[in-house]
Write a structure and sequence with these properties.
Blueprint (H helix, E strand, L loop, with lengths): L19 H14 L4 H6 L3 H16 L6 H15 L2 H15 L2 H10 L7 H16 L5 H9 L4 H24 L13
Length: 190
Amino acid sequence: MTDQQNPTALDLPQVDPLPPATQKYFDICQDKLGMVPNVLRAHAFDIEKLNTFTALYNDLMLGDSNLSKLEREMIAVVVSSYNRCFYCLAAHGAAVRQLSGDPRLGEMLVMNYRVAPLDARQRAMLDFALQLTRASAEVEEADRQALRDVGFSDRDIWDIANVAAFFNMTNRVASGTAMVPNDDYHAQYR
């Protein structure tokens, strides 16, 4: 099995032909990214599931937020590192390299974000995302206050929690289905 044939270990073929709106979205991905990410191809066996996934992803990762796109990608990588999600580490590691312009930062976040040259705000954000990933039931007011103390608003805390939770979910789907990252991710922005 290669990522060009089937993006997961499951026999769930992509709808063929794709509805016009989905084909247009895939064409935009191809034009902008040079590929259609396998996570989208994996969801394309059920267009409603694909639409639901992309709507939530686009809202959390690209929508209005005081968190920068880079910060949201940093959360994705730290959560995925703890969960050892090969797909998300490849895809979002590339995004961190691209958005930061620093291939070393991408590698540091994949390996151990604590060695990265982060400011206090970013460090607190990633500490919280990791805590939420490791033991969400143990998060308490002092943890949220630590985020406020470095300048995050309650809305920002909502966004951090939602991005971290989204990647905890997608990591498990990717691992559970043996989703493979597109080969292109591995060489991007190095």
